[in-house]
Model the fold of this input.
Amino acid sequence: MMRAISMFLLFFIPSVVFADTQTPMPGPRVSIFSTTTDWAALTGLPLRQFTGKFTWSNSDVNQGMVLYYLDAFPCYGEADSVRVWIGPQKQSEGKLRLVCVHAPKSISFTWRNAKRDADQSVSTGILNCPVTGERELNIDISKCTRGPDWTEYR
Done:
């Protein structure tokens, strides 16, 4: 038994002494969990569910457009309901369902031009849209303003 302990120490201690101490420690982990889940507790306001209804003309959407809602106070998007595709012939696919402490006056999306069945890909930039309505939020694409493309962000 003593021999086993001696052999262990003989091999273990040099490995600790000669260990690479120059290897940098990994940086802090980035949390992708939203802090918005406590908005009701932080504001004292109850959370309510809102749905989005889009309107657009064919000239606003030539081949189709994929929109992803960007979380921002007073709302966050429900995970399965933040992607919407809108097409040139008043076609749409997906839904927008938000949880908010009150109805927003504006919301933002990432966007890119894409056909209906296009795979998820890098979006182009930000689209800022005014919103009207209470429980059903009305978003008129023709009234949205295009923000900077991602390549323009610094």
Remarks:
- The longest helix spans residues 2-17.
- DSSP finds two helices and ten strands in the chain.
